[in-house]
Sequence to fold (680 residues):
Amino acid sequence: MLLHKLKSIQFYILCCTFFIMLMVGFAMLLSASVELKHEAQEVFDAGLAQSALLVQALLPKNSQNSSTRTLLLSTESELSASILEQTAAERETISYYENDTVIIIQSAAREKMVAENKVILLPIVTKEGFSRQFLNDELWVVFSLLDTERNLWISSAQQEEIRSELSDDVAMTIIPAFAIGTLVICIALFFSVRKGLSPLYRISKDLNTRHSDNLTPISIDNLPSELKPTVISLNKMFAKVSLAVMREQNFTDDAAHELRTPLAAMLVHLDALPDNLTRKALYQGVDNMKKLVNQLLELARLSPTSTDTIELIPIDLHSIAAQVIAHLYPSALAKDMSLELMCEPKITVLANRTLLEILLANLVENAIRYSKNKDLIQVVINRDKQSFTLRVIDHGQGISDADKQKVWSRFYRCNQSAATGSGLGLSIVQEIAQLHRGHCDIQDTLDGGATFSVQIPADSSSKR
Amino acid sequence: MKILLIEDDKLLSEGIKSSLMQRGHQVECFYDGEQGLLAMEALPADIIILDLNLPKLDGFDVLSQARAKGVTTAVLIITARDAISQRIKGLDSGADDYLVKPFIMDELEARVRALYRRANGRSSNEVIHRQIRIDTQARQVFLAQEAVVLGRREYDLLLLLLDNKAKVLTRGQIEEKLYEDEPLSNALEVHVHNLRKKLGKDLINTVRGVGYIVAA
Fold:
């Protein structure tokens, strides 16, 4: 039951141990007190009997002749007992305390004497030997013997409460010792369980802190034998996943490359066709496919296993942006657009050159694709102490608020009819930004159109 | 010019061949690395177009073995692989240019021409762009048959831009070619301004923040 909702092994072990210790302790206490009580009773009983016999032996012999009263008085003096709150006239019974033991001597005609007694209520002795009687609502153990010679009952009595006091006291002394013992064991257990579970903590910490794409195996050195099988199977799983990821990546890469040759053949043969609308349409189709293939390749290059190894080097943002714009300018020129770069010369940042080129090219291509003829497209690059921001500002149809979130997902296109893109460009942009620990955003351009901005921390190398 | 084409994809090979032949070149096709290597050694050619992914003998090996045997013909690599490392490897093993598939025929031919020009010098002494004609031997420029007087730098800049028609040249690229030392900050602007004044306002387009381009 408890195992079903096991939340912490350490807590579980501690609770169980504490519970078991408690039960064992309780049982020990119980058996010790019962046994002690029994032994103590025997000792006390022996004492009780001995006291009565001793009193009998000490009584004067001539009691047959003297009155009971005289006898009692003499007994009193002989035993130098304390007379308990009784007037001399009524002193037909004496009680004598020693070691919590009361000695009572009374005449055989006890009914009368009992009735006469006002202070100490005498045990109503009915038989020789041990008996238990209630007096004043207290339980007494009484040992009585009949002195036939003097016609006297001699009884010794002890309060039950006093008799059990000893065994209870002894039993009680066990409790603090046991409590301290339990505490010490629990504390020791806490630390040893903690120490024993430390490899588990280490593994979970390792798994927690590693990058989600990190599929390298966990070291099995210094692991206890109980954990080894688990970690080994975990490592096997890592290997399988990493193989699958690699296969997927290789497949995309190979497929995209293999597609390039037939595409090249199509393009080359298109050249032989007469220049008409059909050729233009075919050319457009092949060109779209070419872009898609290129973007698939870019995606494959960005896929998980390569993320931990992206190489960051100091690069000049201005020269990269200038090259990307120079490369794409002819397609802007074909639509009679102006393409501007606003960036102070020599902005050096730490980034991956190839990826940043891909990012910028995708944003600018997008802007060219979705802008109207004669539009102006601006690439603005700023940097401050903490970060640098790339902004590609177009004055095209803009992006509705509903679409602003969706455009980052793969194969999404805002305007199905007008679009000629693959829908991969922006998701590539986002992945590259994230690889640099940056983020992307879309705003509306003030006088219409969309502004895509990518903000990347200046020191994107720290902790990925 | 005479071109050797070593490409294993028949469809692509035929397309390139017919297209180049339409443009007045002689083309011979080979379909694997071994054949290609033999052809490179045996046949005279102006340009060799070489695919990297070839049966029997890899394109890299074909190239390096050919170079080792003394083949000096300019080689243009066409390949599906565009990783920078591959580019560098290709150029290191002796290629003169590198073109990633898929490409359009205009681009392939332009590259082939550029390679040929680099190997053999300018094919003619004339550069013509719209109404502008440059006699490169006499270093003279004519606008609609009228001679125009240009400064040395202006002439170099014009020739550079016309040689790279339809391509944006960044400031850095231009300055590197034109000036030996670090130029004055606005020297380039002044030269562009003068060229526009002398040869027409819309000759050179400014790509703000980047550089200049002469539209085709």
Summary: Residues 77 and 98 of chain B are 5 Å apart (CA to CA).
